[in-house]
Amino acid sequence: MAPWRAWVDALRRWAGLRALNAPLGRLGEDCAARYLKRQGYAILKRNAVFGRYELDIIAREGDTIAFIEVKTRRPGQMAEPQDNLTPQKRRHIQAAARHYLSLHDEPDAYYRYDVVCIEFPETGEPEITLFRDAFQEKLSFRPPMRPARHSRNQRGGF
Fold first, then answer.
1. Rounded Cα distance, 35 and 19, in Å
2. H or E element: which one contains 7?
């Protein structure tokens, strides 16, 4: 077997696994959007693509724009949803957020990065955890807008 064929087969397997997770991710994002609306957020945009990067949800809570990453899991998976937010993924979210901010002139708006973690059990209601202001940008990358003033983690149910 040619070496490139093994690579192509591995890529096909990986793509197939991603396709299997797509419905769960979409379900998680729908669930997160409903939860955030009940928490008082106004959803501005979902699945916003900026170049190579995507933001799951862009929402407003009062005078703060929240860039929200949704992590969805089934029980028994190896890592907690919030543990899969790698430094590289954070940089991608920040790059997409900077692009969004550059397109929308709101100099008086605050902004922050939230994470919504959802675990769907085999039976019953999903467990939803909202981490407000889950991570910070390095100061050298901060666009000319104000970061969120305060944060509070909140655990909620569906």
1. 25
2. helix 3-38
Helices and strands of the chain, counted as H and E runs: 2, 7
Q: Which run of H or of E encompasses 70?
A: strand 64-73
Query: Are the CB atoms for 67 and 58 separated by under 8 Å?
Result: yes
Element (H, E) at 66: strand 64-73
Q: List CB contacts of 128: < 8 A, sequence separation 6 or more.
A: 31, 32, 35, 116, 117, 118, 155, 156, 157, 158
64-73 and 110-119 as β-strands: parallel, antiparallel, unpaired?
parallel
Cβ 45 vs Cβ 55: under 8 Å:
yes
Task: Count how many Cα atoms sit within 13 Å of the Cα of residue 28 in the half-sphere of its side chain.
Answer: 26
Rg (CA), the chain: 17
What six digits make up the tokens of 79? Answer: 């890592």
Please list the rounded mean pLDDT of every run of 10 residues in the chain (158 residues).
52 47 81 95 95 94 94 73 78 92 83 92 87 77 48 43
| pTM recorded for the entire structure | 0.72
